[in-house]
Structures are given as C-alpha cells and as structure tokens.
Specification:
The strands form six sheets. This protein has a seven-stranded mixed beta sheet with strand order 4-5-3-6-2-9-11. Strands 16-15-18-19-20 form a five-stranded antiparallel beta sheet, with no helix packed on it. By secondary structure, it is α/β, with parallel strands linked by helices.
Length: about 450
C-alpha cells in the first residue's frame, strides 16, 4: 500500500469521525484535507497551517477547523465564539441542577467502572483537554483491570483490532498526530494497555457515498460495534475495554424514525450485540466552547458554572446518588464530566500542566527567533520513526519568553522554520524538581 493511499485512508477516518450534522462542504473536496494531513505527516507544519487558514473556512459546525489547530498545539483557537453568550433562561432546569453537588470525576467513575466490562468516554475533537482527561482516566482504569484501549482515531488501514506498537507515530492515526492525543496513547502503551482500532474500514465504507441521513450513520455505527466484538471480545470474552470516541458515539439510546425503524449510535449497538451495559460518559458537552450553529453552550454546563462549584474536573451527583448529564445527552448516557473553563498561564493553557505531570521549561524567544516564525518541538529521545512531539510551541518574534510543558524524561529539541528546514538544537532532560537543557 502506497504512502499516498495510506494518507487518504487516514483522512477518510478523520472526516467520518465528525457527525453527519457536519457534512463535507461540497466546495471543499476531501482532497484538500488529504493534502493538509499529508503536509503535517511529513513535517511541513507552517505550510499546512497556512493552507488550513487560507482554504478551510471558519466552520461553526462541530468545530472542524478548530480541531485542526490541535495538530499545531494552538489551544486558544478552540474557542469558536470568543465572547460569552447569554443562555435562554430555563428556571426548571436551573432548579434541578442546583440539587447536585460536585465530586471528583475520576474517583466516582472508578467506583462505577469496577462492576462494568466496558467504559466509553467521548470527546469534542477540538478540545485537547479532553484527551488529557482521557489519559488520566485510562491510568486509573488500568489499576482495576482494564486491558484494551480502543480508540476511534486509530487507523484501520494496516490492522483492525489489537495493535502492537511501542509508541505512537504519525501514521498511527489522524487526531493522534496532535501532541496531547499522542501522549495519551504513549502513556497508555507504557502502562500495559493493548491499543485497538475499530472504526469502519475503507472497504467497509463502500456504501457511504450513496447512503444519506440515519442510513449513513447506521452503517458506520454498526461496523464500529461489530469490529469491537469480532476483533476483541470473540477472542477475549471477559476483556475489560476502555473505548475513546467522538461526540455521539457514546450515546446508548435508540431513536424511532417515522417509518418505525429503530436506529442508534455505536454504544447502543455494542450494548445490544454483547448484552453488556457499558458505562457511558460524556465530556464533550460538559465543557466550554461547545457552541455550534449559533447556539450557546449546553445549558446544564452553564448552570453548573453559575454555581461556582467547578474548580477541577468534576461530576455532579444528587443525594440519591444520581449523576447529572448534559441536556443534549439526557437519558442517553450515564453521566457527564464537567471541566473548568480554560485559563492561559504564561501563554499555555492551565490544564496542560496536568496536575504536575508536565513541568514548565521557560525559553527566551530571542535565543531561537531569527527571521519568520519558528516552531520548537520536543521529541522523546528514543522515538525515531515519524515521531509525535511531546510538546511544541510557535515563536513569532524575539520578544519575551515561551514555555514548554514536558513530563519527566529525555527529549530532543528540534527547530522548524517556515521553509521546512529542521535543526537539531540539543537535548532536554527533565528530572524531578530539576530541568537540564544541553545545547550541542
């Protein structure tokens, strides 16, 4: 299989991971996205960034353009509407929300997950802190016996099902080329998870061009569930699986159409196929910046924020032990995780420090800026095949400082200029309470 063919398949997987409510713009054919991913995979970062900003229109339908900014570690562009927007008052809903109290999200999820075989967590593709939370939850789930991490973004072009890799690389998947997502997979591998791909394959999607609406959605949802059953559960009937999905794939409810046909998303089909009730978790609509099609945030999120009770990643529970869900997923999932609103510290989002997991390394811009913008990338020292940066920052002028956020470990520091020229700058060693930067 040629490199170009592989890249086209990546893009098919990426585009299919967005709901049909965000259908492709016919004026922008998929090849435009293929070229963008091709450039990113080959390390032509600035060329890809310019092409994206010049050719992909601002898209208020599921944050497609904003999701691409995660590949460049640009996190402040994920906020589609910069100004706060008033919500339509719903006194009954507001009163309901006031009955719930905050609890630590991971602790409560682990209590529930101990009696479940499958846990499903969703994300909004343009919010990288969802991947940071996914990583934290994966570590906690591993401690109670979860062994497979099935991730929507993983490419199915080479292997469908369990994947044996030592670390993620740029050909591992689409969204996982983003540094935070890449490290989610990296650390999951390091603690013993078996990664598994399960999304609809290129061959399985031959009817998508002619299917429409729910028929189109159903084909993909059925194949996703079937692929998990066929490649994991048939061989390992008691396997405990953490499934990481986008948006509505975590929805375990059924919808009855006007013609009487019942349709559902992946979680619903998987529940039906296995007879196992998965623990389904929404975080996409428990977050700020989920403002699509000129709508405000999910009203439950806004009412939770008004109580000023969310200072960390939280779930809300009432006196009877019932968990609060976003309005959009009411009676469709088990619980919603609520995230604090993002704040910027030293030019980086507060959540990226990941409760001390990543350590700050402050660099003087004047030491690296010459002419035109430059991207500094820190790569794990022993990762050599098309590696994914642990962190990266863009320096646009010589003034001020920039902050790397890196976990403990050894890294190679690379600079990339606007022409695509790469320069090895030295090694970074991050030790407990100490940072060493050695320039060659």
């Amino acid at each position: 299989m040629t490199y170009n063919t592989i890249m086209k398949i990546y893009v098919v997987a990426l585009l299919l991971s967005i709901s049909d409510a965000a259908a492709d713009n016919p004026k922008k054919p998929p090849f435009a996205f293929y070229k963008l991913h091709n450039k990113i995979s080959k390390g032509h970062i600035f060329e890809a960034l310019k092409e994206m900003e010049d050719n992909i229109p601002d898209d208020k339908s599921y944050g497609r353009k904003e999701s691409y900014y995660t590949f460049f570690s640009i996190y402040d562009n994920g906020y589609i509407f910069k100004e706060p927007r008033p919500i339509k008052e719903d006194k009954k809903l507001k009163k309901k929300v006031e009955k719930y109290q905050p609890y630590d999200a991971v602790e409560e999820i682990i209590k529930l997950a101990k009696n479940r075989q499958i846990v499903i967590l969703n994300e909004a593709h343009h919010l990288s802190f969802h991947r940071a939370f996914g990583q934290k939850l994966a570590i906690a789930l591993k401690k109670i016996g979860f062994e497979f991490l099935a991730v929507e973004t993983l490419t199915t072009n080479l292997t469908l099902g369990p994947i044996n890799i030592k670390y993620p690389h740029r050909s591992t998947g689409a969204y996982s080329m983003a540094p935070v997502f890449g490290d989610f997979l990296r650390q999951s591998i390091n603690i013993g998870y078996t990664l598994a791909s399960y999304d609809q394959t290129f061959e399985q999607g031959t009817k998508r061009a002619i299917l429409k609406g729910w028929d189109k959605i159903q084909e993909r949802e059925l194949f996703q569930a079937k692929n998990i059953v066929d490649t994991i559960l048939k061989k390992n009937p008691s396997a405990k699986i953490f499934i990481y999905v986008g948006y509505s794939h975590a929805d375990e409810s059924w919808v009855t159409l006007k013609n009487g046909k019942k349709v559902g998303w992946m979680a619903a089909h998987l529940k039906k196929m296995t007879g196992t009730d998965p623990l389904t978790i929404d975080q996409a609509f428990g977050s700020d910046a989920i403002r699509f099609n000129n709508r405000a945030n999910d009203p439950v999120f806004d009412y939770v924020m008004q109580q000023n009770k969310i200072h960390q990643t939280t779930v809300m529970k009432d006196k009877q032990g019932k968990f609060l869900t976003s309005k959009i997923f009411d009676n469709k999932i088990d619980l919603t995780v609520f995230h604090p609103k993002q704040k910027m510290i030293e030019g980086r989002p507060d959540w990226l420090r990941m409760e001390g997991y990543r350590k700050p390394l402050i660099l003087k811009n004047s030491d690296y800026f010459t002419k035109g913008s430059v991207m500094l990338q820190a790569f794990v020292e022993n990762e050599t095949k098309s590696p994914i940066a642990m962190d990266q920052i863009i320096i646009k002028d010589a003034k001020g400082t920039s902050t790397f956020l890196l976990p403990l470990g050894n890294y190679k520091l690379i600079s990339l200029d606007e022409t695509g020229k790469k320069t090895f700058l030295g090694n970074i060693k991050v030790k407990e309470n100490k940072l060493h930067f050695v320039v060659n």
